[in-house]
Design goal:
The protein is an alpha+beta fold and 131 residues long. It is 24% helix and 8% strand. The protein has one domain. The strands form 2 sheets. The chain has a two-stranded antiparallel ribbon with strand order 1-4. It has a two-stranded antiparallel ribbon with strand order 2-3. The longest helix is centred in the first third of the chain and has 12 residues.
Length: 131
């Protein structure tokens, strides 16, 4: 269940400048929220999936991360675009105990505390961090 992911330890989420907008996060689209959960709670995928290795423009996040046992084993970048089924980093579905754990949120479930424009590069060398 998606709520089980919420209790895992979290970390800041670096992302590519202008790849994620406040409007996208405020839309509460489940693929966006779940992708941020994957990135903040997941482990680095080694090797990265094909989409994450595909170069700039294919991903909002700088790292290929996934949460073992959740979200079908897909990475946050593929989940963001709703392409979880085609993520090459996915775990074998037989090993995935909870394959249907998308977290759906209503306006009353999520509160955006602060949205601010960040200046800087937003690259692997100087990421923008949500934390």
């Amino acid at each position: 269940m998606g709520l089980a992911v919420l209790v895992l330890p979290g970390r800041p989420v670096p992302f590519v400048r202008d790849a994620i907008t406040p409007a996208q996060v405020n839309s509460h689209r489940s693929s966006y929220i779940n992708a941020i959960l994957i990135q903040s709670r997941g482990v680095a995928s080694n090797p990265s999936c094909a989409a994450c290795d595909g170069g700039p423009g294919l991903r909002p996040f700088l790292e290929c991360r996934r949460v073992p046992g959740h979200f079908g084993g897909c990475c946050g970048n593929c989940k963001w675009r709703d392409h979880a089924i085609s993520c090459t980093a996915r775990y074998n579905e037989d090993d995935d105990e909870d394959d249907d754990d998308s977290l759906s949120l209503s306006d009353s479930d999520v509160q955006v505390v602060a949205v601010r424009r960040v200046t800087g590069a937003g690259s692997a060398a100087a990421p923008i961090v949500v934390g």
